[in-house]
Design goal:
Order of helices and strands: HHEEEEEEEHEEHEEEEEEEEEEEEEEEH
Mean pLDDT: 93
Low-confidence stretches: 1-22
Largest sheet: 7 strands, antiparallel
Radius of gyration: 20 Å
Structural class: mainly beta
Strand order of the largest sheet: 1-24-23-22-21-20-19
Helix content: under 10%
Oligomer: single chain
Shape: globular
Number of strands: 24
């Protein structure tokens, strides 16, 4: 009897341990899949038919940002119930192919995927210092068949990056197409960031296309620095909101700016005190179809010190305040991206694990009423 009580007590203790109290994670990409050591950098987009495309970096040797990194995708045709096998989008040998930033051109159904490239032997610190063999370059590929096939990546560095910039990143998260209420209807906007060669300052910016993705142009940098990975959404007025990763640790929260010219220029940076962060990427998405019920949804690890507590929030006043929140994963978590689904649901693709945020990339769906 004592032994039975002892075992029961031990089981209860184990179940109370944080590693056992976490819910199971619905991984789309998990360490070891297809021979890859690690998957990072999630991005999401829905196609014209409502299919979901989930992108990630597939890292061969380790979770390092350097080395042999491919860009991969999984596809769902049933609103996230089931998923295709992993599909290889871009493999350039031992080099880095990453930072997926997809966007749907709604007028013709084409999905564009903006990406960045660098030599696998060039480390980020060397690219920033200007001592690398090559530099970061910007590419685009596209799919006209719901993500089944993709064109050969085309380089667009000359029109989207200044020669005085070193490090560069597209996204990583979805881009947007501006609505009819905008002064630039139909424009495709991709949030990006860069580092200046001389000052080594970090800035956010956007690139955009006004010709169905045929060419891409460079917008201006944010007026202040110490920000980089960013995410963009359109307000009811047509104005854009840029939400940025913040390196100013006197304020452990997100920085925001606005644009009245479709992402070409940005207002001065201000703090969003509600959106706390541990210096990490995040995602924001707007629901313009709601009319007066227009909403913004935002996801990130809601902690000031650790990458943990992946949280989904909602704003009912164009991002001025955040009224509702939903804790998705209490444990280690990092990058994420959001997508709006039919049936008043929202999907999230996010990095998470039990002991590390980089054990895999999980997908979950929620009813919008769950967060509101």
């Amino acid at each position: 009897m004592f032994f039975k009580r002892y075992l029961t007590g031990m089981c209860l203790l184990l179940l109370c341990h944080p590693a056992f109290s976490q819910k199971s994670l619905n991984y789309l990409f998990e360490q070891g899949m297809e021979g890859y050591a690690c998957f990072r950098i999630p991005a999401l987009v829905t196609t014209a038919k409502g299919h979901i495309l989930a992108f990630a970096e597939a890292r061969k040797g380790s979770c390092s940002d350097t080395g042999d990194i491919d860009l991969v995708m999984r596809r769902s045709t049933d609103k996230g119930e089931t998923w295709s096998k992993i599909q290889l989008i871009w493999d350039d040998g031992e080099n880095v192919c990453g930072n997926p930033a997809p966007v749907l051109e709604q007028r013709n159904g084409t999905v564009f995927l903006l990406m960045t490239w660098n030599l696998g032997s060039d480390h980020e610190r060397d690219i920033i210092a200007g001592t690398s063999t090559d530099t970061r370059r910007i590419f685009v590929t596209q799919s006209s068949d719901e993500g089944i096939s993709w064109t050969t990546p085309k380089e667009i560095t000359s029109t989207t990056k200044k020669s005085t910039w070193t490090w560069y990143a597209t996204g990583p998260c979805h881009g947007i197409q501006l609505s009819k209420r905008s002064n630039y209807p139909g424009r495709l906007v991709i949030p990006c960031d860069h580092i200046e060669a001389e000052s080594k300052h970090y800035y956010s910016h956007a690139i955009y296309s006004d010709d169905l993705g045929k060419t891409w142009q460079l917008g201006e940098s944010t007026p202040q620095h110490q920000v980089n990975e960013c995410t963009v959404a359109e307000k009811r007025s047509g104005e854009l909101l840029l939400n940025m990763r913040n390196y100013d640790r006197t304020q452990k929260n997100r920085k925001i700016a606005h644009s009245t010219d479709g992402g070409k220029t940005w207002s001065n940076l201000v703090d969003d005190s509600t959106l706390i962060e541990p210096i990490c990427q995040a995602s924001i998405i707007g629901n313009l179809k709601g009319g007066k019920r227009h909403r913004f949804y935002f996801s990130n690890p809601a902690s000031q010190d650790k990458r943990e507590r992946m949280t989904l929030r909602v704003s009912m006043d164009n991002g001025k305040s955040w009224q509702g929140s939903l804790l998705i994963h209490e444990g280690p978590s990092a990058y994420s991206d959001l997508v709006l689904l039919k049936g008043k649901k929202i999907g999230i693709l996010y990095e998470a694990g039990l002991s590390s945020a980089y054990e895999g990339i999980a997908f979950e769906r929620f009813s919008i009423k769950d967060v509101e």
